[in-house]
């Protein structure tokens, strides 16, 4: 099946972001995509100073638009970090997924918050405004089972291993690495997650805006279970496509059967919630 990754240029005007995102979703569907993914923070600028201002409840304005376009196009739509979600007085970095009937099939709240301090380069602390999610998020399609993470979640190998154990063959991470971490680790982490678990891994970033307070790396990417990059964007707004070949995935797992050869008598990864 065909996967589309929409690397959207995000402005400060929510209505414009929503309109352009829905237009690109329709374009991707017209080109045969059955699963379409939007980037992290697609309806607002990325930054702790913006989260409260742009926050919505779920359901709300942004998720309603995504539901409508998913149903119109009869696709699975991964809504990036569609919105900073407000719930019970807390804010979450939340990704909603909609099925071909427009219904919500998954909602992932970012588990690992991005709190870093690289002297002389970048300091950022999501926990100043956001609360972490506390669960794994998976959804079934007629094609395969899909696991979800958001941005910083990509760095935690245990999370991807749990998804593989639960039968996921594709992992999707809406994300917004910056100009320091992006060139260093963005592709490296994706290829690592793909090879370790013999799954497809896709990451979808906002397009780069040099004038933004937080500048995203871009380079939305799809990697196959052999660790090969099969689709990759540059920095500009674009839509890239990857054909997910589950027969190839099965062949790779048969050729190098690491998943059945793990020494579970010596070690293991456990999902607690």
Automatic annotation (TrEMBL):
The cross-references to SUPFAM superfamilies, in alphabetical order and at most eight, read: Carbon-nitrogen hydrolase
Molecular function as annotated in GO: omega-amidase activity
Keywords associated with the record:
Hydrolase
- Supply the InterPro entries for this chain: C-N_Hydrolase, C-N_Hydrolase_sf, Nit1/2_C-N_Hydrolase
What Pfam families is this protein classified in? Answer: CN_hydrolase
GO terms of biological process kind = asparagine metabolic process; glutamine metabolic process; oxaloacetate metabolic process
Catalysed reactions, as listed in the record: 2-oxoglutaramate + H2O = 2-oxoglutarate + NH4(+); 2-oxosuccinamate + H2O = oxaloacetate + NH4(+)
Q: GO cellular component annotations, sorted alphabetically?
A: mitochondrion
Gene3D superfamilies (UniProt xref): Carbon-nitrogen hydrolase
| Superkingdom to which the source organism belongs | Eukaryota
Tell me the first and last residues of the signal peptide.
none
Task: List its EC numbers.
Answer: 3.5.1.3
Q: Which residues form the CN hydrolase domain?
A: 1-246
Is the keyword NAD in the record? no
The entry's family comment says: Belongs to the carbon-nitrogen hydrolase superfamily. NIT1/NIT2 family.
Q: Which PANTHER family match?
A: NITRILASE-RELATED, OMEGA-AMIDASE NIT2
Q: Can you name this protein?
A: omega-amidase
Taxonomic placement: Eukaryota, Metazoa, Chordata, Craniata, Vertebrata
Which gene produces this protein?
Nit2
């Amino acid at each position: 099946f065909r996967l589309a990754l929409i690397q959207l240029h995000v402005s400060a005007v929510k209505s414009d972001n929503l309109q352009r995102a829905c237009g690109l979703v329709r374009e991707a569907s017209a080109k045969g995509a059955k699963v379409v993914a939007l980037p992290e923070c697609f309806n607002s600028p990325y930054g702790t100073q913006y989260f409260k201002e742009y926050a919505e409840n779920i359901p709300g304005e942004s998720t309603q638009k995504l539901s409508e376009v998913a149903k119109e196009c009869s696709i699975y739509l991964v809504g990036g970090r569609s919105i900073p979600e407000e719930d019970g007085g807390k804010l979450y970095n939340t990704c909603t997924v909609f099925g071909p009937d427009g219904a919500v099939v998954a909602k992932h709240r970012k588990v690992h918050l991005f709190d870093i301090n690289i002297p002389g380069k970048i300091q950022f602390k999501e926990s100043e405004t956001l609360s972490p999610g506390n669960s794994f998020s998976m959804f079934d399609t007629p094609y395969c089972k899909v696991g979800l993470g958001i941005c910083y979640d990509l760095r935690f190998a245990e999370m991807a291993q749990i998804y593989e154990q639960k039968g996921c063959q594709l992992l999707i991470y809406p994300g917004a690495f910056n100009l320091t971490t992006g060139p260093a680790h963005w592709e490296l982490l994706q290829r690592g997650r793909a090879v370790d678990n013999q799954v497809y891994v896709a990451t979808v970033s906002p397009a780069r805006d040099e004038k933004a307070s937080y500048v995203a790396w871009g380079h939305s990417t799809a990697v196959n279970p052999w660790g090969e990059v099969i689709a990759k964007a540059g920095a500009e707004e674009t839509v890239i496509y990857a054909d997910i070949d589950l027969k190839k995935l099965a062949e790779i797992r048969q050729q190098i059967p690491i998943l059945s050869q793990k020494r579970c008598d010596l070690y293991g990864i456990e999902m607690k919630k």
